[in-house]
């Protein structure tokens, strides 16, 4: 566990924000900044990790983010560091809620894991990302860690995210986000970031950043709403580029500070492949099948299709605000698609996939019509397999006529379709990242340069 009187410590944290205020990244920023200011011998082994988990879970926090810090700590400082972290978390939570945390939807999880990240934690991350995690599963994971974990706040629902974030190592793809925090005196005020400077930043750094500005609505995407402590967040591929992009902005309010996080955002990490006979509510994944019947338009412009693979079927809905409703509306019976997203239960329908990506794999190019009657030109009717045709108008019969083949003009092409930028949720890969994502490698840079 320790080498040369140093210990590798992973700190996992989740569910310290309420539906009305606070932010788990904010308290993590404060924890890390305090550690670096107080303990000069503590070394960050990675950027603070911002890990988004399953977006379909009903009791998730607003952004469903869990955080992990990975540190090399002098063993003699370990107890002092743990005490500081616990105190910081309790102080942060107590400023927002009373002692009855659960009445505010807060069930904070805090975990200290020592040594290497083991396989049970890696599996927990994948499950928390793509499925429902029962508390019994969590207890089994803790037991498998054989005493290498401490949970100072007890067995809380937030421990699922806290330990899952610790397990999110060796990500196959990752992005980074530079998050700027407001000074507390500004929380109830309108955010003050010059809009024209956001547009200029987007133009200069669009090759290494994404989702900065929605030009169709003339609205910034880097600034959230509400009274939470985040002023803005710039997402991209390279921490150094994010820092340059941040410095190009014109910010007209006092800030508390900022930090760069390594994330699984914009990576489609939740898109695991599943079969249609393996569908349960609260799962995420990608399902391939053939469109059955015609798409149906629901109230408000949302569109639902049914896909089939063998004997199993699945309803999939694309909401109007994503723009994917138009893709589903253009499909027809017999088209082959892969639809990705999260499954929720709908009364009257059962499990329904909320679509956040559509891959059109094959489309029907022709349709076949009954032959026309050689005498009167009316469409004939079949007399049964191999029994020929009969005209319902004039009664003419024939046995050697073939169906007419009609080429179809389709309004959808083969390819991948994703939501419009303003509807892209945290985990979804935006269109601009296709073709430029890369393996998430360890970057040769000093993490402490990216927190202030």
Task: Describe this entry's structure for a reader.
It is found in: Cytoplasm. Residues 157-270 form the TiaS FLD domain. This protein has three domains: 2-170, Alpha-Beta Plaits; 176-264, Glycinamide Ribonucleotide Synthetase, Chain A, domain 4 (Alpha-Beta Complex); 273-365 and 408-426, OB fold (Dihydrolipoamide Acetyltransferase, E2P), CATH 2.40.50. 20% of the residues lie in helices and 29% in strands. It is built from eight helices and 26 strands. β22 (381-382) and β23 (389-390) form a beta hairpin. The two termini are 30 Å apart. Mean pLDDT is 92; it is low at 97-104.
Which helices and strands, and how do they pair?
Elements: E1 2-3, E2 6-14, H1 24-38, E3 43-44, E4 49-52, E5 65-74, H2 78-94, E6 109-114, H3 119-130, H4 135-144, E7 149-150, H5 158-167, E8 175-182, H6 195-205, E9 209-210, E10 213-214, E11 219-220, E12 230-236, H7 239-247, E13 255-263, E14 273-274, E15 284-291, E16 296-297, E17 303-309, E18 312-318, H8 325-329, E19 336-346, E20 350-362, E21 366-369, E22 381-382, E23 389-390, E24 397-398, E25 404-407, E26 415-417
Helix pairs in contact: 1-2, 3-5, 6-7
Low-confidence stretches are 97-104
User: Mind summarizing the main beta sheet?
Assistant: 11 strands, mixed
How many domains would you count in the coordinates? 3
CATH fold-level assignment of the largest domain: Alpha-Beta Plaits
C-alpha geometry: elongated
Keywords: ATP-binding, Cytoplasm, Ligase, Nucleotide-binding, tRNA processing
Organism: Zestosphaera tikiterensis
Main location: cytoplasm
Family: Belongs to the TiaS family.
